[in-house]
Structure formats: structure tokens, C-alpha cells
Amino acid sequence: MLAYLFLITMKLVLLLELTDMIFNFTSENKSVKVKNKENKVKRRGPMSFKEEKREKIKLYILEKIADGQTDFVAKTAEAFETSLNTIYRYIRELEAENVIRKKDKKYVLVGNTELFGLKRSKGEVSEEDVIYSKCIAKYIKELPDNVERIWQYSFMEIMNNAIDHSMAENVTLIVSQNILNTTILIMDNGVGIFKKIKEYYNYDSLDIAVNELFKGKLTTDSKNHSGEGIFFTSRILDRFAAISDGKVFTHDKYRENLKNLEDLKGLEQFDFGKGTTVHMQLSNNSKKNLKEVFDMFADDDGGFTKTRIPVKNFFETYPVSRSQAKRLSNRFEAFQEIELDFEGIDEIGQGFAHELFVVFQRNHKNINLVPIHTTKDIDKMINHVKSGE
Predict the structure, then answer these.
(1) How far apart, in whole angstroms, are the C-alpha atoms of residue 154 and residue 184?
(2) Rounded to 5 degrees, what are φ and ψ at 353?
(3) 187: number of CA atoms within 13 Å, CB side?
(4) Where are the domains of the chain?
């Protein structure tokens, strides 16, 4: 048992470091199994101008430390037009509050990390709300109401996927929190998410399964699930990644076109093992609102009728052929409005444009295709094929 716990702990630390690599943010102090959360983000009443400025300066300092910057003292003093002595005083206060500490001659954020191991055979992998209450709630309950609601929705949606779809015997949860962010990892040893989607829909490759998740309304159990959980969770959180069978699905704006772990230096030989790892992160003081995200993709009656698709994720080269357009438009019938995001794509081929904006639209007049972030060349090609009608 001790050997097993040691291996789990080592994998915990390694996984946190690897997911840091995926998102390219600075790792914090990682201590396994803490008893009390020291750095609670408390709800505050109205602050005076002086207090508000002090809090803004401290937050600026913390963000620079989280980014791994070492010359933040002078930058902070310059940005807020205050003295170096004032900045050093705030740093000492943050150290005294155990929010930051020095490590290898530079400051890092202090964070707490806890691991939970759940077994299906013991009845521990059965009810996501119970798991949330036992393992997650204590980290979230002191955060602002909007953040708490986002975490309740996001965790329980992803945990339910592990319960209902993965058929995993073991599920491991990792909660890591510092003064700025909360990070949660859910790892199972069941059927990998992309493999299950590929086999259920008989797709030709895991890449197609990854791409279909961007559209939403994708489920392998339509009687009991809507296929909305991952779609909305990946859009409401600051960081989201699902990792399985060497593939990555992420909605992080800097890594959205990442599909293969082998594309990341340092991860080429790492084996995440059987199952799926889901990485989620949200700022403890996020201003995001769950309802606003739902409303972006809903009609007046609240139905999930809209979606947004990053076209660049679907093609290794620029989209040119009719067959590419047909693959992209698979399951478009599930929506009334589809935003096709062409960011990162300079041009499209005539066959692709005609199949999508003429042939598909002719056969699906009730579906509105909305191209966004287009170049002049893309607009010109779309107008060209439409003018031939």
C-alpha cells in the first residue's frame, strides 16, 4: 500500500508539471494532503480608494510572480507610480500572510494540493454531487458566488462523464489552489473519451473524435445525456484540457490547435496511461457568469441551438476540397446557427466554399452559417461561390 501511495504521489506531481507545460504557466508549491486551506479568498465589502489601490498593487505583484517574472518590483513601482519601498513592504506583507515565498532566489505563489482516490467497487464512484461535497466544496465555498456556481457545474458535469461513460474502476481527483487560481484534475483508468467517441460513431480516427467535441451535442448515450457538458465547461473555465490516448482537446486560446501530446517538447515519451485526464482551472476572482455563457449559445427559449467552431482545428492544411467541407459540416443539423471561426486561416478553396456555403445551405435553409474572423481572400471566395447561384 505504501508503495502504491508513493507511485500515486509521484504521478500527481508529474501530472501537475505536465499540465503546466500544456498551458505554459508557472507551477506553484505542491504539497500533498493538506489539512487546512490557508489562503481563502474572502468576499469583501466596499473599500476606500487607498485600500483599493493597495489591493490592485498586490494583485499585480501576484500575477507577475505567477508569470515567473523576476523583475516585477521595478515594473510594479513604475506602473503604479509608487516607491520601491512601498512595493517591498507589500511583498513582506504577502510573505507574512503565507501567500508567497522564496524558492531558489525567486518568489513563487504558495499553494495547497490534495489528492483523493475513489474506487467504483467501494461505491465511491457513483454520485457526482456527493463527491463534490466531500472533496471539492471546502475549497470553493469561500470564493465569490459566480465562481462557486461555475465550479459546481463544471466539476459535476465532468465527474458525471467519468462515472457514466468511462466505466473506470479508479478515479483520482487532484485539487490545487493558490491565492489566484483553483485547479482541478480528474483522472480515470477507464475507456478513453476519444476512443469511446470514435468507436460509437465509427469515425476513422481519434482526431475526428477530438474535432467533433468542438461542435457540442456529442454524446454516446443520448437517452441519458445531452452532450452539452464538455462544450460549456470548456468555454466557461479559464483553462480546460481533456487528455487521452495521446490526444488533447482544449479550449485554451493559446493552445486551441494542439491535438497531440507528442507536439509538446518534454511530453513525447510520457504515457498518461489508460483512461482520461481532464484539467480545469479558473481564477478565484473571475468575473465570468455561467448564465452569460449559456445565453451565447441558446435561443430565446433557452435551447442549445448555437455553436462556434474553430475551423483551423479540423485541417492540417488550408481547407480546399468538398470532402473537407462535408467532414466539417457533419452534425450541423443539430444546430440552428453555427459560427465558423476562420481565425488562423488565410484562404479557402472554391470546392470547400461552394460545398459549405452553397450546397449545404441549399439543403439546410433553416441553418444559419456565420463566418467570423475571415480574411479578405476568404470573404472574396465566399461571395464568389454565392454569386454563381
Answers:
(1) 10
(2) -65, -45
(3) 18
(4) 2-25+112-289, 49-109, 305-387
- HSE-CB at 148 with a 13 A cutoff on CA atoms is 13
372 beta partners: 341
For 192, the grid coordinates are 478513453
DSSP state letter for 282:
E
The residue assigned the cell 430565446 is 300
C-alpha span between 358 and 246 (Å, rounded): 37
Q: How far apart are CA 129 and CA 31, in angstroms?
A: 26
Task: For residues 338 and 282, give the distance between their C-alpha atoms in angstroms, rounded to a whole number.
Answer: 27
pLDDT band at residue 31 using 50, 70 and 90 as cut-offs: very low
Q: Which residue has the higher pLDDT, 182 or 210?
A: 182
Q: Which three cell numbers stand for residue 90?
A: 507589500
Topology classification of domain 2-25+112-289: Heat Shock Protein 90 (3.30.565)
Cβ neighbors of 142 (< 8 A, separation 6 or more) are 40, 41, 42, 43
Structural element, H or E, at residue 374: none
Q: For the residues 190-217, what does the mean pLDDT come to?
A: 88
Q: Radius of gyration over alpha carbons of the chain, in Å? A: 23
Domain covering 49-109: architecture: Orthogonal Bundle (1.10)
Alpha-carbon gap, residue 257 to 250, rounded angstroms: 8
Rounded Cα–Cα distance for residues 252 and 249 (Å): 9
Report the interhelical angle of 49-66 vs 72-80 (nearest 10°): 150
Among 6-10, 261-265, 345-349, 377-381, the least confident range = 6-10
Q: Is the pTM of this model over 0.85?
A: no
User: Which residues, including other chains, have CB under 8 Å from residue 317's CB and lie 6 or more apart?
Assistant: none
CA–CA separation, 9 and 149 (whole Å):
30
Q: Is residue 107 within a helix (H) or strand (E), and if so which, with residue range?
A: strand 106-109
Minimum mean pLDDT among 87-96, 116-125, 311-320: which range? Answer: 311-320
SS3 172: strand
pLDDT in tens, 329-353: 998 998 999 999 999 899 999 999 9
